[in-house]
Design a protein that fits this description.
The chain has no helices and 20 strands. It has strands spanning 3-6, 11-12, 22-26, 30-33, 38-40, 42-45, 48-51, 54-56, 59-60, 64-67, 72-74, 77-78, 83-86, 91-97, 102-105, 108-114, 119-122, 125-127, 136-137, 142-145.
Length: 149
Amino acid sequence: MTACIVSSGVVSSGLTPGPADTLTVLGGGALTVGYGGVASGVILSDGDEYVTGVDSGAVLRGGTQLIKPGGLAVATTVDVGGAQTVALGAVARGVTVGARGVETVEGVISGVAILSGGRLQGAGEVTGLADGAPTSFASDGRMIYRDQT
């Protein structure tokens, strides 16, 4: 098992960590997952990630993840201080938003769980019940949505 760390001032792409490897992006660092690229198990610790490929199982701990048009994020956990943005033309599935995490949707999201203190906002499409991936909110989770008309 290898630990890859992207630190301040570094933008990395073309990395090929194996399935047992961990990739951590620290504050000031950035990771780009381009078209056709796949990332799995990335940890954003105040770092940034830009996805036009596929990202699976990312954990955002104060980091920011932007899913760009054509990109797909699966099973993301948006933890304390983390923020995921799903741009128009992008898709996220199976997202968990924890305390002080923010999920901004301009594209499509399905199967989102908003835990206590989490927030879902935007003007995109929130689905889930039709494909068996429910959307759920804790009693003090927040949903702030703009009128699309």
